[in-house]
């Protein structure tokens, strides 16, 4: 039986050919289904920097916004399976969309898991579109009930986890919050800052710069516990709403990629995500950067998809809700 030192040595040896080999790909892309500037886009660019010159001679980030993140997945689904196209996506597109979009143009096996990228919490934020006296979620819900024409919330896309959080919050509280879908977080937060919408539900990291300047107020977050980045902000469960969710980002290849191609991608991607620079970046965007094995990501996706299938069936949620 191998002892721990022998196992560590052999495991390191398994990746040694990748560590010093010349890139076998001239150009590779990390594809995101959202516009530049948001948390997922910045993560893609940081990881691409770590992969450039080793995984591929040239690493690009390609933004394919539209259809609430679906275009990014369809782009990778139809890409060459040689490892030159890699998807970075929030979990919603794979764990929720199959049960909220009746005519989805992809299946789970159209992409192949490579590694987890990290975990995020979503937060409900308000800006200048509501009075400065609205400081808590209870305040906002009372204001929304009294101002039906302005009772709305934006999300990064129809059918996404933030969309579902807002709809469920409205159901729990009896407040009719009208949903306004955006092509990603960045344009939605811009409208929130401009007062065009009253509230927005999306990744907490995209609010942080505006919270520091006092332009936005985050009223609640979706996770199990308070965020170290927003320690004064309560969770939805703390406030009496039975909803605890955390979204993850994952890296995937085309479903037709061979096992060797997937192993090579993981061999470069996992140490890139473990780099100290990525942990520091995560602190700026309220992102818990983590890697995983391909099988662990596959298991996580399977478990999440089953749980969302059950919940969506229970509440009757659809992308048009």
* Strands in their spatial order, largest beta sheet: 2-1-3-10-4-11
Low-confidence stretches: 1-20
The number of E-state strands comes to 11
Determine the CATH topology of the largest domain: D-Maltodextrin-Binding Protein, domain 2
Residue share in β-strands = 15-25%
Question: Helicity range of the residues?
Answer: 40-55%
Overall geometry comes to globular
> Helix segment count?
12
Radius of gyration: 20 Å
Euclidean distance between termini CA atoms: 56 Å
The top-level CATH class of the largest domain is: Alpha Beta
What is shown here, in short?
The chain is of the alpha/beta class.
Can you describe what's shown?
By secondary structure, this protein is α/β, with parallel strands linked by helices. It has two domains: 174 residues, 3-Layer(aba) Sandwich (D-Maltodextrin-Binding Protein, domain 2); 100 residues, D-Maltodextrin-Binding Protein, domain 2 (3-Layer(aba) Sandwich), CATH 3.40.190.10. Helices cover 40% and strands 21% of the residues. The strands form three sheets. Strands 2-1-3-10-4-11 form a six-stranded mixed sheet, sandwiched between helices. The chain has a three-stranded antiparallel sheet with strand order 8-5-9, sandwiched between helices. It has a two-stranded parallel sheet with strand order 6-7. It is globular and about 60 Å long.
